[in-house]
Predict the 3D structure of the following.
Amino acid sequence: MSAQRSGRTAVTGIGVVAPNGLRTDAYWKSVREGVSVLDRITRDGCGHLPLRVAGEVRGFDASAFIEETFLVQTDRFSHFAMAAAGAALDDAGLSGKAAGSPYSVGVVTAAGSGGGEFGQRELQKLWGQGSRYVGPYQSIAWFYAASTGQISIRGGFKGPCGVVASDEAGGLDAVAHAGRAVRRGTDVVVVGAAEAPLAPYSMVCQLGYPELSTAEDPAVAYRPFTSRARGFVPAEGGAVLVVEDADRARRRGTAIRATVAGHAATFTGASRWDRSREGLARAIQGALDEAGCAPEEIDVVFADALGTPEADRAEALALTDALGPHGTRVPVTAPKAGFGRAYCGGPLLDIAAAVLAMEHGQVPPTPGVFDICHDIDLVTTRARPAELRTALILSRGLMGSNAALVLRQGEQA
Amino acid sequence: MTPRRVAVTGIGVVAPGGIGVPAFWDLLSDGRTATRGITLFDPEGLRSRIAAECDFDPRAHGLGPAVTERADRYIQFALVAADEAVSDCGIDLAAENPWRVAVSLGSAVGGTTRLEHDYVLVSAGGKRWDVDHRAAEPQLHLAFSPSTLASVVAERFGAQGPVQTVSTGCTSGLDAVGYAFHTIQDGRADICIAGASDSPISPITMACFDAIKATSPNNDDPAHASRPFDAHRDGFVMGEGAAVLVLEELEHARARGAHVYCEIGGYATFGNAYHMTGLTSEGLEMARAIDSTLDQARVDPTEIDYVNAHGSGTRQNDRHETAAVKRSLGAHAYDTPMSSIKSMVGHSLGAIGAIEVVACVLAMAHQVVPPTANYETPDPECDLDYVPRTARPRKLDNVLSVGSGFGGFQSAVLLTGTGGRTR
Amino acid sequence: MSNTELTVQELSALMKKAAGVTVDPQDLTARVDTPFAEFGVDSLGLLGIVGELENRHGRALPTDAERCKTPRDFLDLVNGALTTGG
């Protein structure tokens, strides 16, 4: 435990594996330019299903990032998580075995869908061939804790390890959880979420979500905040951050890319989007309180942008409820309209985009969205230059969670 | 600033051998076992065909079709345990500020039993990869999402504060209680419905533990198959169930004149960064978790009166945690009873950590240590006092519950009696 | 192939498939007394190899099979079991 601690949680590393970029720089380029990569689903065995459009991670060669001994025993969702964790640790200058005690580095992930493709393969062996054909890795690949465990083992990290198995908002909760671990005395936490929900059976499991968009045309499938909003499209991928105490980061001469200033979470019931207005507003107020941040200080909002009329209306109204008149003036964006909602991975991708937006002084646009029917200043078409010191990231989950996170601009080492 | 203190004011349990706290405590204090041949499905062809099952009729506990249609067996367990805990704590939740009521529930495998059931329907019995969605049941998405557990429980009680599902393998229950402890300690809620549930007795889960030979193949003698710390132990016996605790900020509980069972004195978890299923023989990381909880509560190792063990009954686990407890408690470990209730109720994966915390609360309430059933033959590598077969009266002020989970998780929760704080 | 011997080549292929460990058969022959752990084959990997062999041959291998420390121990044990029939 370090002697001097600021009590502030710094983001010092970012790793991304997303449908619109397999690395952080490629991701930011796509986000800044408002590229949409939503497309018809091409994964094996999925073509006949009534879920047509998603954000697929294409061209991802897991063996380029991860040793084969890890690959054979893990699902695609853990491949994404391990690859993103590796990139985040590189970015933070912490690759290889972390200096100091192994207990000083913890791992936290959020997971909302588990190792579905691996699980389906083993279920097929069990029911098609017999129980003796189920392999030894089913016990460690399918469950929600797989990514945390493998990142911990691969990196030798023995600090506090946790898993929030959650709906989308769990991605923000995991980052807050990591921040609290840092405040309790852990030096560094590797925190993130990545999902791989595009295997045939996993897709069948999602068909029951009333908010799912089953549109055939990628150009209209996911259009949050418009009069033609018809639901969300799922995505693969996610992001991992390295967070640590801000003073510790300064002492080791690492750039602080942003600080996690505040977070709060509430619950208003599954698919009760009318009630999410109050839940989200309270989460925003709670996050601002924890951050000691006035509403007017928020320079940009990364919206949840579920993409159903009722949910979009609730979010737009929650912004005004929580931020007052500033709620209609602050720039709002939803880059995920260009690549989909990666469940728990979605909020992590938003955090990554928010950090990059603050660093580049640009609010990225909401791809494919032009005809906004709510009273918010949604940034569309192209990135808008602005000095961004504080960002608000919002998330709501299909099971009823609401969460808000406040990020402050970082500083160079 | 002194951290807010966290009290246990209500408990509820659904466990094999009897539903509800009284039946559960009867089983534990009698040292009876609830392990038997699997009846929930035909286990023909499996290596381990035994389990500790709950004889559970949701209707008998007031769960009507509107609930059972949406809520899978493991969620039904959690609802019944939560009903009991909330009733026990005596809070009128409707009169509380709902934004200050949180939920923290754990599950290792969540909705996998339903996921497997529907998988068989859509794949024509495992024949096709391109599954046919038309055969799926309408509520399948609720089994897919692990957060359904906390969501359904939160809706039942009108909780609107932080609601989370925790899934850290077999430490999920301990960690869910730990996260709840932190939630109240940090001031993010005043009340938290905390616990865990799992109903993993299904072909896929049994088969995946078969594949790594972690479960006991003692199919001929199921009642004596779960043998933690015994020299002849040969794996764990699968279980199912749920336990829920109402955790409450201590002043909040005192202000309403609540009965306080005990306090959560400390919680810690570490990763072993060693192996997804393997454990070292030293137990350094679990020892560190124990040490941390003692530090938090300012309790000396010699003040520990009972250790509720993970005690799964695998060769490596029992050796691992014996080493860990000796490392943390030193010579005092030999004077400290340490028992495993998995000998009686089996190993319900993510649920068991919460069930064990409830067992510890009851042990303190009754001042009785539950035994390790089936313990007969000492193992030289496991040389502590495992409370063989018979419950034992003892003064219990500070009680520790520990657990290990796939993924390398090593967790500990310390319960302190209301008068047990030394400083 | 129910009574054929397990060769080093086959073991090498199984190590790749079940444990993700690439060892050239010639190299494996030369290092047949090197512990599995040094090749990167852990307990789960060896269980996977045993399971694969059991399914191929339609019979159980001795329970000690997954406890073998080296490729030579494993080959000896498995081939002893496979060639003795019963």
Summary: Chain B has a mean pLDDT of 96. Chain B touches chain A through 82 residues (CB under 8 Å). The two ends of chain B are 15 Å apart (CA to CA).
